Fold this protein.
Amino acid sequence: MYLTADFLKRGFRPGGRHGLSSTESRDPIGLAVAGLNRLARSEVIDRLGLRRQAEQAVFTVTRNGFRTATAAGRQFARLGKRGAPGTHPAATRTSGLFDLTPTEDEQMLVDVVGEFAAEVVRPAAAEADAACAAPEALLRASLEIGLPILGVPEALGGISEDRSAMAGTLVAEALARGDMGLAVAALAPGSVATALGLWGTDAQQQTYLPAFTGDDVPAAALALTEPTVLFDPLSPATTARRDGDGYVLDGLKSAVVRGAEAELFVVGAQLDGRPVLFLVESSTEGLSVEADPSMGVRAASLTRLGLTGVRVPADAVLGDTDGTAYAECVRLSRLAWCALALGTGQAVLDYVTAYVNEREAFGEPISHRQAVAFMVADIAIELQAMRLVTYKAASRAARGEDFAREVALARSLCAEKGMRIGLDGVQLLGGHGFVKEHPVERWYRDLRAVGIMEGTVLV
Amino acid sequence: MINLETPRKHRTLIDQAHQVAMNMLRPISRTYDRDEHSYPKELDMLAAMIDGLAESGSAEGAGASGVRRDDRDDDSGGVRNGANLASVMSVAEMCWGDTGLLLSMPRQGLGNSAIASVATPEQQERYAGTWAAMAITEPSTGSDSASISTTARLDGDEYVINGEKIYVTSGERADSVVVWATLDKSLGRAAIKSFVVRKDNPGMKVERLEHKLGIRASDTAAITFTDCRVPAEDLLGSPEIDVKQGFAGAMATFDNTRPLVAAMAVGCARASLDLTRDLLAQAGVTVDYDRPAQVQSAAAATLLRLEADWEGAQLLTMQAAWMADNRKPNSLEASMAKAKAGRVGSAITLACVELAGSLGYSEVELLEKWSRDSKILDIFEGTQQIQLLIVARRLLGLTSAELR
């Protein structure tokens, strides 16, 4: 009796799949409906011509769990002195004046990137979102404007004279005003190069940076996030175990940009109870990558990166093993996501400002109604508050000052208010906001990423 | 170069303000909250001290009159951190001490800011050292300040003022009152001018003092003007009715005073945050800035969110003042700062009462007081809704007839 009941219970429990909680149970009618559903999905009725077959996007093949190996990747020639300290950018200096004016160099970068965002990125955004991929030509163009070497010291072939957190923030903002997904795709290789500039040893810099400062820049990705609830980046479940002369990594990472193409990963893993960054080349055995299309930021081709017994050499550790470089990496990454929120938030504000002035209802533009106009005002106010708090964190980072608090505040604001901006952007367009004819629904999906992403990109 | 830290040159001033707020205002904060309408005599000493600081130059020109847009200074083309920034930072610090007492500070009234904003150089000199209150609101006219009905009629070389004003901060204590009155109601906004009326003028009478929700240390007077005669030279600015310029002259005051009120909200809210953070720490709850909010306690997550909103309000306020210092038009930014600081001031102080439970609600602590004090800061110098109207009209390019 008991056995039967137990068997039935397990057999009929629908939970754990299809977004059902594990406490759900089926009653007889539910069972009958589940059976009908199975029949409805069967190919038999299609063969009988009872239903038109929907075309499946190429991407759904990978969506359904198709796993592949990581890119074979290039051979990075081992150069430089192992263990010798690398060349790191110096902190910027302050005049002590409160000032909201970017430097001339920063302004020049913003102008160039802003033009690129408006003329190249925005027009490509909708299609890239649908395809879950950034156009090759766009990525190539992003290399030409110097994105990968923005955070690399001049001495190593880059363009930064000192810490580039402020410039990087302004650039990420300007790019995301075009599109967040494409911005993330374009910024990913530079994020890895910046990390190498900040924490790399001489050997690591000599080995890897020439690829980023040359003509054939590899796809590369920062892999900190993991697909678990209540994920805390400071306590990753991915582990690193000392093994002979090197380390063995095991775990699962998510939000890895263009994982299938990437040739170099920076992976966060727990070593002796502390989070540590590891450089992992894509050709290393034990890596697998799986497409992980998400709600938004789709143009960045987000993937999951599986690590099973991945063996890396002793000098794969990027930065220290006491968690300092790792924590800095998490903070700089949050800064990047805040900057992206600013750009996309600005895109929403620009768009709705024009829309509510053009759209008429009850014989006048809807902007003449306080209910509408006040929403626009609130978007502008919160966006500017987000911007100032983010800039404060960025300028502190560039000066080499502690910015843990400031970036936490920026992230809190950018996540909460940024999402609100996405929400109101759709609401202000009403039904038109819900359909893909307008970009606001994409921005709504993209802005949700800000409070969730850890790693992926940094400035 | 982008930098949003407290300006190096203002640090001493802010430290001084902090010490004054802590050692002079806090000890008498509850006393004058309970004892509404009694004059905080301690402030005379403090005012003398502030005057001394101003004389010595170490105040950086901060204070109510620090909002004057001074064109006489050299303009080397560099970035300036001047009196506007110094003023908002020191006002915030003083309101961290006590908002009601800051508003009662002799010679630091909003009327002083108005004089500083629109008076001619001769008038500046003549009113130096006066303590001026500000009288705009009327019993039937609040936010719609363009439709005030107090009149000023030119009679020989004097104006004759008639009307009733309410909500005049320090209306009884100040030496003079800056009164908004219309020269000709039919000409609309352009005809509204401000007048300095001295306290001893027999035509001016303080009718009563209000009993209020908060800022009880500060006097709020209702004043009547009955055939109140003031010398023509006490009309601030130009007596011409320039219909083209319209209301802009009178409203210019607000571009300067709104960041100050935003700063008050920022200072008051920081008092609540500082104490709540400490009380929570004593209870074993601290914010870990590096960990995601959702893996921390609800109290820590709330505190983090409040602090983030506070930081946004503070930086918007500093931005508006910085723009004034650098002679950039800042109407939009001043209203943004006022809107954000006004609403988060209330949200933060009320949330802190909740976090501290009945301890926060009780008069044992000052948290309940700060949550009463902060409410007015989302109302005077333009309510939240007025700020949103201003921001929206600017962004959308709409007139006040289109977006009402």
Summary: The first helix of chain A runs from residue 2 to 12. The radius of gyration of chain A is 24 Å.
